[in-house]
Amino acid sequence: MAKEITSSEDIQLLVNEFYGKVREDELLGSIFESVVKGNWQPHLEKMYGFWETIVFNVKKYSGSPFQKHTPLPIDGKHFERWLTIFHATIDHHFEGQNAEEIKKRSTQMGMMFEYKLKHIKGGE
Fold this sequence. Notes:
Elements: H1 8-24, H2 29-36, H3 40-56, H4 65-69, H5 76-93, H6 97-120
Helix pairs in contact: 1-2, 1-3, 1-5, 5-6
């Protein structure tokens, strides 16, 4: 049964399940693994803080997530797959205002990252 996202535990469930799916994904898994090199916990911790900052408006994350993505071999199909898995994970467990806010913000971020990477890498 879907519920509202109201706690750190909810964010952890979302992030853990999402990245569990990413690890097994044929398109995304190897890209993430090339960065985390089997040590997923620091990345997961960072993502807990990132999404808590966005959803609960608390200062648990600071940094520039875009910069981490610039050297990666990613393009539109990767962002599309990421969003598909992420939104499906949200929809499986959650509903309500916070779930919709995370989906909206992740879509905006994905579009911005894709646009900026395309221009940095010499695209349109």
